[in-house]
Amino acid sequence: MIRVASVPSSHAYVQHLLPVRCGSEREPLSAGSVQLLPDPAPVRVDVPGQWWPPRLLDARWLAEQTDVHFDVLHVHFGFESFAPEELTRTVDHLHGRRLPLVLTVHDLHNPHFTDNVQHLRQLDVLVRAADAVITLTSGAAAWIHDRWGVRSTVVEHPHVVPLDRMDRSRPPSESFVIGVHAKNLRSNMDPLAVMDAVVEAARSLPDATVRLDIDEDVFEHSSHWYNPTIGAKLLDYTSFPDVDVRVHGRFDDDALWDYLSAIDVSVLPYRFGTHSGWLEACRDLGTAVVASDCGFYADQARVHSFRMGVDSFDPATLVAALRASHADRTPAVESGTRAQQRQRIADTHAAIYRAVIKEMR
């Protein structure tokens, strides 16, 4: 059994790197030849299930542990909490004990920060030190090779929605619903920029309506995401008769699956980014995706793209993409296809773990 200390372990993406067993979504932390170790509790826990900032990237904490034993450290998310110098100490600790490091590069531009300098400095350390690098698309792999001269293994993104939930039929709808979810106005999102073009596209289609969702954190004074100026401008769309504006708490998983099943197309107004789990959830539920061309979303899966970047936006391309999504409805990926894909993904990861362990020994 290969013991994998994953950063993190509890994230749905990481859980879905294990194969499905007995057709159940309640799979254990171990499957086949791989065992995922639980996330060590952080110094301070503010919310249930919190794994960040990850103790496994703290070289001092690692050196003090006598009861933490693993064969591979696999880093996915959470390293933004550590300066490049701290990450260097961590990889030195691992290599000094002949413990291999595997890195999956999900984000080449951290979606939470407009300034990407620190993120790239952190990747400078991790990519060069990793004994194996994984990423999700060929475009990202080429970018990694161009910057660091490192070859990556491209492993496709697994399903996000539970397999049994994917098998439910979508609810009937009397209109073509275009969804824009502002969420908490994360740094890479600019829903305000796209709304006029979304409304224009909806009005050009015979049966289209627009649904605009906003997390209530945007309007809470005590919230880290408090942004009343942009929030108020988004609320102005309540005056449009064909726009349904909804403010609510952050969706839990079940509510998110219901939301994505209630809209026909989801617009991703990203100024910067790389890959998207939201995109995969849409695929699982048969919701079309209209995404900006700033990252590698079109490499990740079939989407309708429009031109948008840090300092640019072409509204005509968004209108065209929405019209295309109306003309070409997207069927959901079958749960059986996703289960087979997940087995391939699990086999690939197990093979990578065996290879780096053998090489290190």
Assess the beta-strand content as a share of residues.
Answer: 15-25%
Q: For the CA atoms, what is the radius of gyration?
A: 21 Å
Termini Cα gap: 16 Å
What's the order of the H and E elements?
A: EHEEHEHEHEHEHEHEHEHEHEHEEEHH
Low-pLDDT residue intervals, each spanning 5 or more residues: none
What's the story with the biggest beta sheet?
A: 7 strands, mixed
Would you identify the CATH H-level superfamily of the largest domain? Glycogen Phosphorylase B
For the record, what CATH class of the largest domain applies? Alpha Beta
**Overall geometry:** globular
Tell me which CATH architecture of the largest domain applies here. Answer: 3-Layer(aba) Sandwich
**Quaternary state, please?**
single chain
| Domain count | 2
Give the neighbour order of strands across the main sheet.
2-3-1-4-5-6-7
Classify the secondary structure makeup into a structural class: alpha/beta
Please tally the β strands and state the result: 15
Count of helices? 13
Q: Please estimate the helix content.
A: 25-40%
CATH topology of the largest domain: Rossmann fold
Arithmetic mean of pLDDT:
95
